[in-house]
Amino acid sequence: MRREGFSTSICSMFSDPARRSDCCALACCGVLASDRTRYLVLGQRPAQSWAMRLLLYAGLPLGLYRAGDAVIASAREDEWAARCRAAFPGDGSRAPDLSAFDGPVDGVEGLGPRLGLGLALVASSGIAVACLLARARRSRSGLRRDILERLRALEEQDQEQAHGAAPGASGDFHGHETSQAAGNCGCYRIVSDDGGSEAGTGSEPAATNGGDLCSCLWSVLSSLFCRACCQCWCQWCGMCGTAQEEREIPRLVPEEKWRRRVDYITFQPHDEYLPGLEGLRARGEGSILRHFEALSELSARLVRAGGVALLLLAIWALSGVDGQFTPAHLGIVVATLAQSLLLLYLVHWRWHRLDLSLDAVIKCFASGFFFSSSTAIVVEVLVSLAASCVTALLGLLAIVLEIELGLLDEPTGVGGLDQLKPSIVRENAWLGVLAVLLNAFVVAAMVEELCKYFGYWMVEHPDLLNDGELANGGGSCGAGGAEAQGGGAVRRDLNSRGVGITAGMVATAIGFSCCENLKYVLASADVGVELSTLAARSLLPVHALAAALQSVGVCRRDLEGDRSHRLGRIILPALLLHGSFDFFLMVAPIIVAVRHADDLGGQDDGGTDAPYGAYLRLCEGLGTVDGDVWKPQTGGGTDPEGGGGGDDPANGTDAMIGLVSFGLSLLSVLAGGCLYVVASRRQRHRLELLERDGTAAPVAGLVAPT
């Protein structure tokens, strides 16, 4: 049964594990997939270059927002500096007047207009986003309308040839369907061609080799939204509709055209640059300049874009416009990129440059850097909210139950809530461990490993396509590939292809970790903290090792033809490694907090004056207070800065807990490394047997959809 002329439902994403187009529809809100569909179906290239689109859709809103935020921050900083000068006189001639931090402040010139300007700039960024989203929706609607008209013409032609029947769909219906499917955010009511509701049917069954983990998860979401949520399918930025349109390319485009695979963005056919890559492999070329000369247009653009970005960052740092980004911070950025390039050199160029082309490595790295990381950020926020709701609900129920059972200490006198805090922390330590467990294994490990896998899977490169995809149009390696290459094709044995898969997946993971490292490193304005963060994250390349573990399962599926190795079994070892590493690091603060639960009680017995200390630290950070004149007020002889607690046995115990936690995380990484070494050696032996006996299936692993 067709869906408004389409051969698949709008909620059929990931129903076929072999289909790469569904992954591409999620990257950049489906812009890449939509552009390629428009090019293949209508022969139209984007009206604007990618540089202009990035500047318009990302640079303009972010620039307005950052400018407004900077104006507001500057005004607020001047306001708080005036309050600090009023509260703490520079010569210490009188007692501090903390009332200066309450009510209006005097002496700040133009504070109101500056705040108004900042708010106006922030509001302008929101208006720009709304206008750009409306523009993008209009573009998606136009493409979908053209595709629907072509599908309708095909159906009319089929009906006339078969029965002479009249057309069934109308332009009005197409307009209503288009407005729903191309919307930025909303619900799509799935209706069949006869006008009946199709909601509740869920996704299409897996086409070739059954559903995998992702298919099952997506099927659950399909059932949830299509059956329980107003019989509608909820979507964002038309991504599901974009994937549905891309699945119609084989129906709308001549076979010789859609079988000739093309790159995203540049639309360069694979058979234009593959002979050059095969020539390098045939000659055993070791010059990196020759490999750069053989790059595809897309990879060359990515390299140039990276160089331009670094140049702009250097100009920005040297200009001194932004005090938060100095030449020292630029050096940290360069060091972060150098660490990733060093890993790529060791994993790929040093020993395996002929097993996977440099062109494929660049594309995999870029996919991990841009697509996997951006998708992971969005999905992690959503999953983290769900996990937080679960733990908060469980915590609330646990506290209510403990109060009913009398397990919590009875509060007495003033500040009873503060007196309850130690009992709550001690009795509910399990809740903190559960929160860490969910955060480590679900929010971080599962989401990031899935995003890295799909970041690799969406890279359509001749070096990485499996036999089924090559047979269905994998560039010059498809039918007639030898003639297209002039007889220069190099046959790669199974082990070489397996090494290429591993190098590609690790390159994707290195791109992902490079973006993540930049995010963590630049989160601090202190260069020393940035360096220590980079050093700590560089010592243990967990993402690269997890990707290598995934590659063993991918090789077993695609090269050995083991259909039982689907997505769940592929990512499971990587998930356990990644989750264990994060869990052991995250659980240490929970244990320390439980040990010091009694310190969470009231502080009315001579501790640090909290308001005074907080305001003093704030003013010191603004540079308006002389630290030699104003000192923190303490009670009980304890230095709040920690000067008198160096010999406290509790500090040694806490340090030991942190050391054990780090040791367990390190042990999990070593165990993952040993597992990969053993599994890869066994797999290499199996691939050698298959190669020697010639028993490998002609179409191994997944079969591309036809």
Concise account of the structure shown:
The chain has 706 residues and is mainly alpha-helical. The chain has helices spanning 21-26, 31-42, 50-87, 111-162, 171-181, 213-228, 239-246, 249-252, 255-258, 270-283, 288-293, 297-319, 327-352, 358-405, 416-427, 429-457, 467-471, 481-484, 494-521, 527-539, 542-558, 567-595, 610-622, 649-693, and strands at 185-188, 233-236. The chain folds into 2 domains: 21-180 and 242-258, no CATH class; 270-600 and 651-693, no CATH class.
How is this structure best described in words?
The protein has 706 residues and is an all-alpha fold. It folds into two domains: 21-180 and 242-258, no CATH class; 270-600 and 651-693, no CATH class. Helix content is 66%, strand content 1%. Strands 1-2 form a two-stranded antiparallel ribbon. Helix 21 packs parallel to helix 24 (649-693). The radius of gyration is 30 Å and the shape is globular. The chain starts with 20 loop residues before the first helix and ends in a 13-residue tail after the last helix. 35% of the residues are buried.
H/E series, N to C? HHHHHEHEHHHHHHHHHHHHHHHHHH
Shape: globular
State the helicity in percent bands.
55-70%
Mean pLDDT: 79
| Major sheet | 2 strands, antiparallel
Low-confidence runs (pLDDT<50, min 5 residues)? 168-173, 192-209, 474-488, 603-608, 635-646, 697-706
Which strand order spans the largest sheet, edge to edge or round the barrel? 1-2
Give the class from helix and strand content and strand pairing. Answer: mainly alpha
Using only C-alpha atoms, the radius of gyration works out to 30 Å
Gap from first CA to last CA = 18 Å
> Tally of extended strands?
2
User: Approximately what portion of the residues adopt beta-strand conformation?
Assistant: under 5%
**How many structural units, i.e. domains?**
2
| Total count of helical runs of at least 4 residues | 24
